[in-house]
Amino acid sequence: MIIKIRRDAAQAARQQLLDWLRAQGLEASLVEGTQGAVYALLGDTARVDIERVRARDIVEEARRIHAPYPRASRTSHPRDTVVCAGGARVGGGHFALISGPCSVESEAQILAVARAAKAAGATHLRGGAFKPRTSPYAFSGLEAEGIRLLLRARAETGLPVVSEIMEAGQIPLFDAVDIIQVGARNMQNYALLRALGELRKPVLIKRGLSSTVEELLMSAEYVLAGGNAQVILCERGIRTFETSTRNTLDLSAVPVLKALTHLPVIVDPSHGVGVAALVPPMALAAVAAGADGVMIEVHNDPQNALSDGRQAIAPDALGALVRTMDRVRRAIGQEKGVRE
Ligand code: PEP
Ligand code: MN
């Protein structure tokens, strides 16, 4: 961190600033020239609240030169993190195809979709049991029963399962779930992120509807700071002025994130575009952009789905997509295809 001091700053105020920084374990080296004085801080500057530095009258400008997310940053951890859940790996060349319905609706539905997803080449089964819905009157999930049915589908297919949590009080219900999903609407629920940081279980964090890449990385940092190193990031579209798709799928976030962090980065084209016909081309584009996986909503009867039916693709479309994704992976020089 660099702190530029006003020319007229009193020596006593400068000393107070230095004492305050020293109390936080930081040493400041002074560079003084005709333009004024600048302090360069070395040490664990991520812990310094830059707004509190800027709030001091003597500070003209303060700027970070290191990322405020040291644990998520690739600088401190150059090698890709590989997240392991239920025998399936994500990251470091291992591709995840997380597929399943938006919501778990019944035993027959989740078993049928799970079998079809597995046959198509899915590596993980998704299914929402707690659904964040815009309307309080919409179907909001089978809750604990939904988790039970998802685990039943895992027992039959062997696919590790991913499901969304909405609040920390639900953690005991997710004990047997392989990957806990934090939805876009909860990306900045810091109490929830801290609670998940206490676990030693993979957490998949979806980018908030209006969140920047840096804010997504800061959310990951909350989980990592608690000691839970198993975090996957997911781009799922952001809000823009465009209305022809449900959201605007920001695929540039993939190479941006891959450069900034060692964590696996996956893409959810289903919520990104909101229309089934647009999901396969954007999934292929995500693979070409270097994603470590995709999350795709699949339903055996999309017309009668209780949530997000419009964006759910049919199981046979998933099978065809997997074959093309495999070809794109090979074309960009990835040794492992979707099903390896
Ligand atoms: C979901 O995965 O079904 C979901 C609700 O996603 P998001 O949080 O990205 O809207
Ligand atoms: Mn959904």
Which descriptors would you attach to this protein?
340 residues, alpha/beta, 31% helix, elongated, binds phosphoenolpyruvate, binds manganese (II) ion
Explained architecture:
Helices cover 31% and strands 19% of the residues. The strands form three sheets. It has an eight-stranded parallel β-barrel, surrounded by five helices. It has helices spanning 11-22, 50-54, 107-120, 144-157, 190-197, 213-225, 253-260, 269-273, 279-288, 315-331, and strands spanning 2-5, 27-33, 36-42, 59-63, 83-85, 88-90, 96-100, 124-126, 161-165, 179-182, 203-206, 231-235, 265-267, 293-297. It has 340 residues and is of the alpha/beta class. The protein is built from ten helices and 14 strands. Residues 102, 128, 132, 164, 183-185, 206, 236, 268, 271 line the site of phosphoenolpyruvate.
Through-space gap between termini: 43 Å
Q: Return the string of H and E elements.
A: EHEEHEEEEHEHEEHEHEHEHHEH
| Shape by Cα distribution | elongated
Count of helix runs: 10
Give the strand tally: 14
Name the ligand types: phosphoenolpyruvate, manganese (II) ion
Q: State the helicity in percent bands.
A: 25-40%
Strand order of the largest sheet: 7-8-9-10-11-12-13-14
Tell me the β content: 15-25%
pLDDT average, as an integer? 96
The low-pLDDT segments are: none
Gyration radius (Cα, Å) is 23 Å
- Please summarize the sheet with the most strands: 8 strands, parallel, barrel
**Based on helices, strands and strand pairing, what is the structural class?**
alpha/beta
